[in-house]
Amino acid sequence: MGNGLIIYATFKRKNLHSPCNILIAIQACSDIIMQMSHPIYAYFAWNEIMVTFHTCYYINFVFISTIDFSTLMVFFISLDRLLASKWPLFYKDLNPKYYISTVVFLCFTYCGIFKYLLYTSLTEEKTMCLIAESMTGIMTYVWFVARQVLTFEADFKNEVLASGSEYQKINKSLKTMITVHIFGWFLTMAGGTFALLAAPT
């Protein structure tokens, strides 16, 4: 619901059509798509259905892509706030259409690279097909480390912003981004935990 409200508000309010708010809305849309994977996993967990990693990869192809997309988008949102705060003149000279298009293109490129690398590591072993289990082997650790590095970088930039006086100018958008990101992942973990506990043993 929170992600949907962000998208709606950004679409309806012209004063929210800044590059940063548009990036936040795109990231919110990505999170909505990712959360659609929960009913699929709940069905597999409840009925104790195991599928191969190959099958799980295709089932969660879109959903795991949105996780990668969203992770890199959060990184770019924090970078956007840092640019706007520390180098405002440079930031104002950026063409919004080209700027947003470049960020989205880089996010899709990141997704494509990982989709290929994950595909090359798939096996015929069985899995319950949790969204995070759409991969196997060494790529599981590569994917996890890449996500943690990007998340750490985003958090570090937010800390830099919070320590400066410029923070007050962007306080609302930054807090919104952080809150939605944390709350979205909380719901993901809560949904997965509920499915594990509710499924018959």
Gist of the model:
The protein has helices at residues 2-12, 19-35, 38-46, 53-59, 61-86, 88-92, 96-120, 138-162, 171-198, and strands spanning 51-52, 126-127. With 201 residues, the protein is an all-alpha fold. GO terms for molecular function: G protein-coupled receptor activity.
Which key phrases capture this entry?
9 helices; 76% helix; Rhopdopsin 7-helix transmembrane proteins; 201 residues; globular; single chain; mainly alpha
Give structural notes.
- The longest helix has 28 residues, at 171-198.
- This protein folds into two domains: 1-131, Rhopdopsin 7-helix transmembrane proteins; 136-200.
- It has 201 residues and is an all-alpha fold.
- The protein has a two-stranded antiparallel sheet with strand order 1-2.
- Helices cover 76% and strands 2% of the residues.
- It starts with a helix and ends with a helix.
- Helix 2 runs antiparallel to helix 5 and helix 4 (53-59) packs across helix 5.
